[in-house]
């Protein structure tokens, strides 16, 4: 006899879904019970749903296949929504399994009753389905997995009523193959090749799945051959980086700066990316960042074959044999003295091991991270794709589960860390090789900047206290200890470097709390030089204009 | 010159909305800046949106008027959804202010773009509105507040685009009065009076706003006169209790037990309550708990005047002069020896001060709380209305802000505490008089019971590990210290009592971590005697049947 949950479990592992990040409740108990029937399924418990969904996101970014989440009705899904939003914006495959009341119980409007489908549609517009019967449940699951895996990847939600799960009559379903992506058609490739040959200033904006070695090398050939500038979207889902790979400059978060990066670009070619817009709107500033005179071409849509399309384009312009320019190996040196956010990034750049996974949710504090790690040993970097903070620690959990042999280093702001701090417990329980570095500047630093950018700089004390994390200052090391994670507070660059070396030597999770008190003007002082240094190609005239505009 | 945010702020305080529980982002910066223009508005920062929404819920339960939340776009609302669900189910007035992108920015589908209205509709079906212009914003707000305050109370959501907030031309609006509730009509009252006079066994099920002194006294007169049994819904939004008030037995969470409480009831009269259904469905068990032969009458619908309706009924049956039976003063005695969950509840019953607010989210560990505090000094108790755990600590924040002169004691399970643990920081920052008692049994104890109740008791090790919070066991005292809250771990009943006395003596927040390791069979051993003891009226035959059914 096989119940629905047991058949579902078999269907999942047969389709390669072998990890479930779970936070179950009563309606999920049969799914939980079925875990023991299926040795190939690993269940990782999270103490908050946002950790489970963010872990599934991080897992899929590194494993290139979906994990399942297991969530408790509409409220569990609600708690997981922010990180599912990030997965959706990052085009990451995730399979949500959301338990529901038994079908016949719904009409009684019991306490936990809510409209799950509506909430789910927000993050998985392409696939939301409530399983109607035990017999058809596994087919629903196979279709949900195929939907999640359909290029470019998406969140799919399967709602599992308790009686569909517990009833007998389950039949496992075979995996369904997602459609094979096609390359860009000949006419598109030819039109873009012609545009490139025109000699106009051209940039290639790469996003989504294009920031992996094969596609990056292909794009770098185009750059070497045709003088095309390579840019990456602001918040890549996953970007392969480091010595021996092409260096691709990311578009800046600050619209003011992104506008500068796009100055004089006459043709923008999109590769699994959107034409850039500002993150937020600001009074009197433009949202759409592409210059008015710039023509936008889409070479590869998100559901197309990126590498094949780039190869076709290289053939068309004759760049196939070009020699791509690669990033030379270069470490930034060991930091010394009083600790600053830059020195934390420098320590990471200097000391990060081979093959690391870097999770970047340091917000203002990690602005220098990309520069400091550009020539470090080869690594992957994953970033805040949807802007919903609280992604970093859960992403680190998922990445470490996906890649147990690779060290994960997560750089996290203090404000952001607090949204999903419960992730530390899962790191301890699973003994994951994650080093979490928390920048403790006791402030929502970015909001101090945004307050001015939106023109509300005359804010008084009450307003400023809303951006201030003092009174009390959080002790993250103590919190981590409370969740079973080895932790240390560091106040100097030397301590920082030593703590990072120790963490890389000793298996299991570590937390390093980098105490970097600083004022708003300190943040601004940091940002301006970063802007100027991190864009070596910036024309001098622009640098000067920028300096006037952004000086403290 | 008045911008939208400034006009909105004035509209809020003029309508009595004087507290805003906030977790702002860039799109909310003008609202934040406007805080300093309005001395009457208190802004309380939360480090996670679920804390802000749960605090607004707790505030309104005690203040009997809404607070505002300030949330950052759809993802901020998502993070706050679970506690808004609890507020919705508890019919609690809450005004959500959800910032959104500028109206003209929406079309660009920037990173944080999502469908806010759809998410909001789930928790505020009665009022969701996106403000369209600065000129009409304040009128929208006045209508939203009136909607929130319309009996019985609801969550209302006002979505505030950044440009509507920052543009000049705001005009404050005067408060709008919500409609006045009407009492039950004469025909309904007469029909119910006739039913009571029939002599059939009758119970009054009281919920919502009926569990306050005036209505409870009116119902107690009816009980004294006509032999009507008084029952309260399982999870009251707020119930006034203690010595000198009528004791009203709550319907049990366990459907098996609630069924027993309703056995032989021939007529059930609803007072701002729903006919009882089981919390979850269980294989082979009924969802609807009212006996087949029982007739259900609605005396007071949620939008009606409860006290006036009860008074009319009392007049009709001649109970107006009856002498209500009141709970005598009685403390349970000081607990001694090895610490158990019951002894924690006993310590609270023995030592709680006058006029306390008790927040009960202890799940299995606080089953004895009602019994232990029944004869304590008068107090309010607020409970988990919607079943979405993570409500207790935020509710305590809100209750303490609403009633700064009343001590708040929150009893919280370890599993539930972790959903919104960030609430501790807000308690520290605002120096709230909250004593949080965390029952640390290192388990999702209730799920161990539910696993059996849904018939999945053959669960193996992997399944059981999903319900187990060991490896590592959380140290809540350390976590609390990390957030600036004075904390202590207690292992004996004597230490527990001493810690509680200390906490009541010293102002500001305290956390007491009650370490009560216990096995599943321990939980079951505890539950059975509780069931039998807490329902003194239970017929012996039923006790015996129950003992057979539920014995470990």
Automatic annotation (TrEMBL), chains A, B:
Residues 3-113 form the Thiamine pyrophosphate enzyme N-terminal TPP-binding domain. It holds the Pfam family TPP_enzyme_N. One of its GO terms (biological process) is small molecule metabolic process. GO terms for molecular function: acetolactate synthase activity; flavin adenine dinucleotide binding; thiamine pyrophosphate binding. Keywords: Thiamine pyrophosphate. Residues 371-513 form the Thiamine pyrophosphate enzyme TPP-binding domain. The keyword Transmembrane helix does not apply. It comes from the Bacteria. The keyword Plastid does not apply. Belongs to the TPP enzyme family. This is Acetolactate synthase large subunit. It comes from Marinobacter flavimaris.
